[in-house]
Each structure stands twice: as C-alpha cells, then as structure tokens.
Design the sequence.
C-alpha cells in the first residue's frame, strides 16, 4: 500500500502561511497521511494539525507571537534571547494554547520532527510516539544566534533543524512515502543564498562545536538540493509542491499582527485552491481526525 506524507518547511513567523494552508486541509479533510514531517515552526504547526486542532496554530501566531514578548530586538547586544523559544514551548504550548499530547501521540500520521545535532552537525529525526513532544519541538526551533543557547534533550544538545534540513522531503522518501505534499514558506523561484558570515564568526559563537562552521556553509546548498529533489523526484515518487502564490510580507521575526493575519489568509486561500486540484483527493481521509 502506498505511503503518503506531508512535509512542512520551517521559517519562524513565515509559518503563518502554513497555518492557513493546514486550516484549509483540515476543512477539506486532507488528513490522510502516514507521516507528517516538519522542521522548526513547521513541526509545531504539524503537531496541532495531526491532533485535529489546526486553529491553534493561528491563535498562537496571531495572539502570542506578535508584539514584543516573543521577538525582542532590544536584546540584540545582550546575552538574552532575541527569539524566546522557551516562552513558545513552556508558556504558550503548555499553558496558553496547550498542545494535545494524547491526540498527537495517538494520531494516525506519525509526526517526524527535524533537529540539528549540536556536536556532530547532522540531522536528527524524532518521532512523536517515542519522544517528549515539547522538548523535541524546542530542539527543532532553537534558532542559532537568535536563541542564545542550545536545546538540551536526553543529555545531548540541538539547534534548529532548518540548519541541515529545512524541507525534510528526502526523509519522507526514505520512510517509503511515494505520494507527498510539500508545503513551503517561500515563493516560487526562491533559492537560498550562501551564508555571508565568515567561519571565524561561527567558531567564536559556537566554540565547542567544531562542525558548526560547516553546517552554516552547507546550509544553502542543502536547501537548494531539497528544492531540486522536489522538482525532480525519483521514479515512482509523486510530489505536489504548494508554495505561496505571492511573496509573503512576513519574515521569520515579524511582529506585526496584521501581516501575520494576511499570511494566514493567503495560506488558507492557496490551500483551498490546492484541495480542488487533480491529485488532492487521494489525500482525503476516510476517518474523521
């Protein structure tokens, strides 16, 4: 039997677009996946989606991550977090808009969460059935430079999964998925540019991780390779690529509630259009989430 996967790109506040797309997918019952794979904010959105509660993503983004509590540019020249991932995980996802851990664990799709191992610099993929969901999301979202520390889990340290696998489509294929939807947060034609910071800067900020300079150096190449794989999948694999129909007005650190709402609305519109296209029906679940 063919395996189906949904792959969600990260992107910080750009995940507002994902939020809208997933609202449309939920409304149209496009939930028939074996795996949902997400990186960073994409993993957070995927968690609420497989729980059947995608509206929580919109609430989190619009009501708790805009303003000055989550993104604090005033901390740029201090040792404090510029992007407070601990606030997102420990206050928002546990108290204000809590993740439904039981539903996530029991959901038909398995959630796969991407993180970057701080010491060896490779990708690590956690699944929602075996790991502490809050902690693996913290690991996946630990933005370098903006979140001033690494996420610690089971005695090891991790940073943002987007450093090595922003769009985990290759992992989906390796899991046996042959029918895949990828939802990106960048417009058509986008290619990631090489890192502008010299290696000595990365060594200065991450002195106990010898692999970190190479992680930054290879990031754009790995991202663009994922795009190439999506556009040229291997034989026997079909990939549907849904991207913003126009360039998003939000960045990964946008604090404007209006712009975030606009990105959600664009995602919903694009998602609804996608659900009516040929091929989308094969992902419709016959079981209510």
Sequence:
């Amino acid at each position: 039997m063919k395996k189906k996967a949904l792959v969600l790109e990260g992107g910080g506040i750009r995940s507002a677009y994902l939020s809208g797309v997933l609202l449309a997918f939920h409304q149209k019952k496009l939930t028939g996946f074996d795996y949902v794979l997400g990186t960073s904010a994409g993993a957070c959105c995927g968690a609420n989606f497989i729980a059947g509660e995608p509206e929580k993503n919109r609430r989190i983004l619009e009501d708790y991550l805009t303003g000055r509590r989550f993104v604090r540019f005033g901390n740029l020249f201090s040792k404090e977090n510029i992007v407070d991932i601990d606030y997102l995980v420990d206050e928002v996802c546990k108290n204000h808009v809590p993740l439904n851990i039981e539903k996530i664990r029991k959901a038909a799709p398995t959630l796969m969460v991407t993180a970057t191992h701080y010491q060896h610099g490779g990708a690590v993929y956690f699944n929602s059935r075996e790991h502490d969901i809050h902690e693996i999301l913290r690991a996946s979202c630990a933005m370098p430079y903006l979140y001033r520390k690494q996420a610690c889990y089971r005695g090891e340290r991790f940073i943002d999964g987007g450093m090595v696998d922003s769009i985990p489509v290759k992992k989906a294929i390796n899991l046996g998925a042959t029918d895949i939807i990828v939802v990106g947060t960048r417009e058509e034609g986008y290619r990631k540019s090489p890192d502008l910071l010299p290696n000595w800067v990365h060594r200065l900020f991450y002195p106990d991780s010898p692999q970190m300079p190479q992680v930054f150096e290879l990031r754009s190449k790995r991202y663009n390779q994922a795009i190439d794989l999506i556009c040229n999948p291997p034989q026997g694999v079909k990939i549907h690529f849904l991207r913003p129909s126009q360039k998003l007005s939000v960045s990964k650190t946008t604090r404007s509630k209006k712009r975030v709402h606009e990105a959600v609305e664009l995602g919903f519109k694009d998602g609804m259009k996608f659900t009516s296209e040929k091929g989308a029906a094969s992902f419709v679940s016959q079981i209510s989430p």
In short: The longest strand covers residues 110-117. The CA atoms of residues 4 and 179 lie 5 Å apart. The radius of gyration is 18 Å.
